[in-house]
User: Fold Response regulator transcription factor from Phormidium pseudopriestleyi FRX01.
Amino acid sequence: MKVLLVEDEPDLGAAIKRTLEREAYVVDWAKDGREGYEYIESYRWQTVETPYTLAIFDWLLPALSGIELCKRLRASGSALPVLMLTAKDSMEDKVAGLDAGADDYLVKPFGMAELLARLRALQRRSPQLKSQQIQVGNLTLDYGTRTLYCYQETGESVAISMTNKEFQLLEYLMRHPQQIITRDRILDRLWELGSEPGSNVVAAQMRLLRRKLAEQGYDRLIETVYGLGYRFKA
Assistant:
């Protein structure tokens, strides 16, 4: 899953980003509200799907506040789940944040364990993110353990451990079975905006993933559609 983090405090932003990446999230980190809004708008101008599944906004941001950023997001029709971070803890402030469109509210200072718990709660409440597992055919991808379970005809299952990037790649493919997914869409979803991965990074990750699947007899599960991209065949 990809998260948009908008936080102007360098130490806090770096700590959140580091924590989320350890949990297999991909994180785009904007340092002020205007930059965060530009991240969102950049995909709209490209007429491609926004890759974000969750957002974390600080309330007090340079250029554009987290409240205003949230209002713009909702005015555009986006239902992206938003967690608001703030030092404001009065009931009036909480009401203002929720009325602006935030889905949850976390008061500073906070522990990273609580932050992760809040994000998991947002995922459970979101219709698109509710399930903690993805199942396609004989394969089940489990978020809790970041493990792929392959069920055999005997009823037994084989657990395949995965790196963060392998997990993210397989998750995206399993969420779009039978669809042709281009290299550019994979880059948008699995790498940070503004990063410059090598030209063959997607192909390299795909080879590693296919190798693990082939060891369990699923060597034809991911099809290369030459000139277009990849397709996960359920």
User: Anything to note?
Assistant: DSSP finds eight helices and twelve strands in the chain. The CA atoms of residues 1 and 25 lie 5 Å apart.
